[in-house]
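2024-03-11 09:14:02 INFO worker-7 job=invfold-0412 stage=load source=structure_tokens
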């Protein structure tokens, strides 16, 4: 599974998706308005793009859900589900789009019921109970074959007091699955942390409930069967202006209550480290998985030989500048800070001044360039393969990548996910 956001259409049209590698594609996003109707996010071409995506997918025997909401599109959810009347209006408008675009399902990406999300969102302590009533109505209204999913946090929905539900089983009765969004755990920061941790392997995370492993455990404990869980994984990472030599993770007594807009706590000196059960003593090591350094498929210390004249090369974010921000995996490759290892599908080394390191506490890589003063936290084929293997071992339904455009044209990230899930191509 993967998301197809409408804003990538100019460089990545719907017809470019290799549907043989996917079962479901989620089109992002339709956005609720103040009258509980639905518009399209990102471009006025949204309706045409959705039609093309559905046509291309159906021609290959694959299915499409329309994702409603998103980070900036969740402002009116609380009002839309607040009463029987508003719920009926909202559901009727969803049904209209479902029929109009010949969809196979609906994905509700409300960020977040009963909790702060994007500034300006409406919030109500009754959001979660109202959400359940809405989902029951949606389930009763859509055709029986329609699939309904919800994009959720790594912890269950908030109750009326703001705490995670201890019993989310009623939601499992109306949803076909939930997508646990295990990304954006840490964003850009002078003291960066992993974007998408597999687990708290060193038992020292400032966010122990925010990882793939924690998400699966929390949702199953709350009553969701594993076969109704999907793990969300990223095809993007974050650039940070930073001199950090390792990723944050340390839980110190004096920072236990500290939090920040980037999602983490702890000091900002870049020196958070682990001393637990990661793959090295401090939870961080360079990737030495391939040997020599001549570009022939072997490498040492996670980096190819550097050209001294280029060691201050800066990587640019998706907005085209060298400041903090998101960037796609494919951009790391196209900008030349990840270079392919010959003969190893999906394997890349840091290059042109960037060294690839491995954070054993989160089982994710990061790039660092002292000359550029940048750290890039991201996921690659290795870390995504580990997440998919974990998903397979836990018996959950699958994984969903945000987004399809972030992979390379060779589909190296998706192929690693499929291999981890033991899905033959």
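2024-03-11 09:14:09 INFO worker-7 stage=emit residues=425
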């Amino acid at each position: 599974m993967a998301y197809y956001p409408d804003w990538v259409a100019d460089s990545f049209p719907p017809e470019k998706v290799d549907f043989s590698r996917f079962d479901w594609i989620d089109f992002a996003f339709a956005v609720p308005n103040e009258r509980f109707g639905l518009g399209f996010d990102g471009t006025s071409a949204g309706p045409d793009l959705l039609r093309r995506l559905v046509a291309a997918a159906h021609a290959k025997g694959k299915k499409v859900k329309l994702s409603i909401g998103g980070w900036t599109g969740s402002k009116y959810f609380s009002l839309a589900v607040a009463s029987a009347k508003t719920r009926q209006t909202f559901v009727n408008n969803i049904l209209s789009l479902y029929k109009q675009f010949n969809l196979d399902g609906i994905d509700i990406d409300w960020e977040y019921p009963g909790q702060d999300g994007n500034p300006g969102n409406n919030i109500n302590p009754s959001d979660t109970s109202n959400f359940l009533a809405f989902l029951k109505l949606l389930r009763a209204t859509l055709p029986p074959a329609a699939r309904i999913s919800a994009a959720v946090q790594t912890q269950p929905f908030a109750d009326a007091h703001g705490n995670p539900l201890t019993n989310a089983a009623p939601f499992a009765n109306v949803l076909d699955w939930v997508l646990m969004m295990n990304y954006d755990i840490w964003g850009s920061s002078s003291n960066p942390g992993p974007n998408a941790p597999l687990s708290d392997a060193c038992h020292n995370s400032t966010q122990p409930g925010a990882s793939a492993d924690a998400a699966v455990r929390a949702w199953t404990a709350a009553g969701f069967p594993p076969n109704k869980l999907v793990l969300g994984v990223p095809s993007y990472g974050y650039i940070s202006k930073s001199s950090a030599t390792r990723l944050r993770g340390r839980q110190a007594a004096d920072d236990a209550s500290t939090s920040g807009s980037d999602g983490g706590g702890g000091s900002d000196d870049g020196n958070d480290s682990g001393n637990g059960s990661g793959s090295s003593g401090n939870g961080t090591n360079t990737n030495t998985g391939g040997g020599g350094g001549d570009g022939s498929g072997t490498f040492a210390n996670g980096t190819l030989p550097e050209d001294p004249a280029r060691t201050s090369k800066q990587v640019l974010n998706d907005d085209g500048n060298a400041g903090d921000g998101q960037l796609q995996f494919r951009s790391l490759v196209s900008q030349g800070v990840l270079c392919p290892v010959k003969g190893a599908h999906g394997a890349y080394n840091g290059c042109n001044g960037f060294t690839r390191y491995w954070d054993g506490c989160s089982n994710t890589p990061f790039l660092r360039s002292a000359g550029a003063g940048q750290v890039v936290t991201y996921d690659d084929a290795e870390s995504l393969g580990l997440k998919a293997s974990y998903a397979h071992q836990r018996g959950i339904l699958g994984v969903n990548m945000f987004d399809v455009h972030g992979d390379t044209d060779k589909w190296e990230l998706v192929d690693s996910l499929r291999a981890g899930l033991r899905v033959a191509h």
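2024-03-11 09:14:09 INFO worker-7 stage=report msg="The CA atoms of residues 204 and 410 lie 36 Å apart."
2024-03-11 09:14:10 INFO worker-7 job finished
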